[in-house]
Amino acid sequence: MFHSIFDTVPERPFGNTDNLYFILDGGSLIHRVVWSKQETSDDVYTTYISYQRKTTNDADVHIVKTAIETYEKIKKQVVAIGQDVDLFVLPTALTPDDMDILMMKEGKGKVKDRFYGSKDLLNSNLVIECKKSILFLHAISGCDTTSGFYGKGKLQAVQLFNHSKYLQVIPEIFNNPK
């Protein structure tokens, strides 16, 4: 899992949530919310297809941009909540260095919630700056399903990247196409 290349930030006791602004990845609700007995899978499918037809932008990019804009406007700590690895990768690449957006990866079962900060993610075990290489690594490592078929996970892609001088120059080209 891509999350494992980064250290988590200490769990932050929220106590008073007046100074926090939460952004929830609606996609994670698919896995968390129980459908009512009256709804069929066909009803849910129709709802999601209708939403997709109306939406032209990538929802994860929209969530991250909203988090950044919200932080700039109201100067409150912003917490993006979700399971999608894109909500972890995109803030690392897109959040300005003077800003810290928290990401909360919800735990399942006995696994506790984990918090990551966009500033803290810069201290990864990548040999070159994480902000410059994370999008490239995410793109070439594929989704977990695809990499599972080939027996290669995201962590193996990171290890290969760290040991290959050839691969380490590619993010510059990837980030600045001509």
Task: List strands and helices in order, with pairings.
Elements: E1 20-24, H1 27-32, H2 41-54, H3 59-74, E2 77-81, H4 86-94, E3 102-105, E4 114-117, H5 130-141, H6 144-149, H7 154-163, H8 165-168, H9 170-175
Parallel strand pairs: 1-2, 2-3
Antiparallel strand pairs: 3-4
Reported for the largest beta sheet, the result is: 4 strands, mixed
N-to-C series of helices and strands: EHHHEHEEHHHHH
Structural class: alpha/beta
Cα-based radius of gyration, to the nearest Å: 18 Å
What does this structure look like?
The protein is an alpha/beta fold and 178 residues long. The chain folds into two domains: 1-123, no CATH class; 127-177, no CATH class. Helices cover 47% and strands 10% of the residues. It is built from nine helices and four strands. Strands 1-2-3-4 form a four-stranded mixed β-sheet, covered by helices on one side.
Summarize the model shown:
This protein is of the alpha/beta class. The chain has helices at residues 27-32, 41-54, 59-74, 86-94, 130-141, 144-149, 154-163, 165-168, 170-175, and strands at 20-24, 77-81, 102-105, 114-117.
